[in-house]
Amino acid sequence: MSTIISEDIANPPTNRLLKVLDVALPDRNYPITIGTNLLSHLEHFKLHAGQRVLIATNTTIAPLYLQTLTNMLAANGIEVDSVIVPDGEQYKTMATWNTILTQLLANNHTRRSILIALGGGVIGDVAGFAASAYQRGIPFIQVPTTLLAQVDSSVGGKTAINHPLGKNMIGAFYQPQAVVIDLNCLKTLPPRQLSAGLAEVIKYGIILDSTFFDWLESHIDDLLHLDPAAMSYCIYHCCKLKADVVIADETEQNLRAILNLGHTYGHAIETELGYGKWLHGEAVSVGMLMAAYAANLLDKFSLTDIDRIKNLLSRAGLPITRPSQMPAEAYLPHMLRDKKVLSGQLRLVLPTQIGKVEVIDGIDKNIVLESIKSVEMK
Ligand SMILES: NC(=O)c1ccc[n+]([C@@H]2O[C@H](COP(=O)([O-])OP(=O)(O)OC[C@H]3O[C@@H](n4cnc5c(N)ncnc54)[C@H](O)[C@@H]3O)[C@@H](O)[C@H]2O)c1
Ligand SMILES: [Zn+2]
């Protein structure tokens, strides 16, 4: 196995539920540490006294967590400054990227400085891309604060900004030196954002791990209540599943594609309705149902399993009906433009049983239309 998991059971006094996942890349390793109250403890950041750090965060997260992190680092002899950018996907731009670079330059940061991304996937993506470019690359630490960022965007080393002509079109593969996941951060996350993160969690069960899907069926309420033990297990398991896919894809060119279950349909919803109306996880929820129906229409997936998926998504607070203002025909132009489409043919990731998917090429458009219509309108 390409990843090693160790549980730190030597911490009962603080009960921080520590789990460390060592992501073993061909050229180096880095740890993803999961636990409670980690923002107040230096040891998982792989930093030491005398170093300089710039924290990049946004206007929503700064009042919640910036002080705690800054104080902890300063108390350990680390010189800290910060840059606070506006909140929102619409700010995942070259302008924000440039703001971070300007702060690095204006404060005379050297190539030994470390950039910390404190926030959700937007901050992680834009700050990671800034770290990859500043003086041709400085060390970078991810402190993801949304469930989606903790289980998805902080794993895999993809960083990006949006361009007016396309989302995530400018970026780099750039791995962090550490990922620090503090479960306490989820306490302030709006419930809708928590559910959106659970869509990606459920996705991992459907594509890779039926036992994990079973576990989710019995623990979804614990996750919604932020039960620390359940959440810590869930996040480390998802990070491990994604890390294994990402590492394996170094040789198997196509494996990463399975992470896109439901995403081709979901992107159609996000693009047609305009970003922000439906959260990414909400669109993926409905998209995964559509993919399940497409698989059923191709005699690859049972109605019983569709019901299991539908129930779990619904219990997670996710939509299981499609947007009423969007007829089935409106999906196709977006789906044909999707960057995962090869030469005009529809290529989709479809489940064949819970825990298994196939990438299927050349899918008939009528099957796709039928699969969309199989999901009721709101
Ligand atoms: N790099 C990758 O592999 C990858 C994978 C998936 C998604 N992404 C990217 O991630 C982004 C979506 O990430 P996201 O869902 O985390 O969105 P986000 O970063 O916009 O965060 C969602 C909202 O929650 C707020 N927030 C974050 N943490 C909070 C907390 N602890 N308490 C209260 N509010 C908090 C944010 O300020 C924001 O308003 C997209 O830009 C997407 O392209 C990247
Ligand atoms: Zn996604």
Overview of the molecule:
The protein has 378 residues and is α/β, with parallel strands linked by helices. It has helices at residues 62-75, 94-106, 121-133, 147-153, 191-208, 210-224, 228-248, 263-273, 280-297, 303-315, 331-337, 365-373; strands at residues 3-7, 19-24, 29-35, 52-58, 79-85, 114-119, 140-144, 158-163, 166-173, 178-182, 346-353, 356-363. An 8-stranded mixed beta sheet has the order 1-2-3-10-7-6-4-5, sandwiched between helices. Strands 8-9 form a two-stranded antiparallel sheet. Helix 1 (62-75) links the parallel strand 4 (52-58) and strand 5. Helix 4 runs parallel beside helix 7 (228-248). The relative contact order is 0.11. The model is unreliable at 1-13 (pLDDT under 50).
Based on Cα principal axes, name the global outline. Answer: globular
Separate helix tally: 12
The main pleated sheet reads as: 8 strands, mixed
Number of strands: 12
Based on helices, strands and strand pairing, what is the structural class?
alpha/beta
**Could you name the ranges where pLDDT drops below 50 across 5 or more consecutive residues?**
1-13
Order of helices and strands: EEEEHEHEHEHEEEHHHHHHHEEH
Radius of gyration: 20 Å
Strand content: 15-25%
The N- and C-terminal alpha carbons lie at a distance of 43 Å
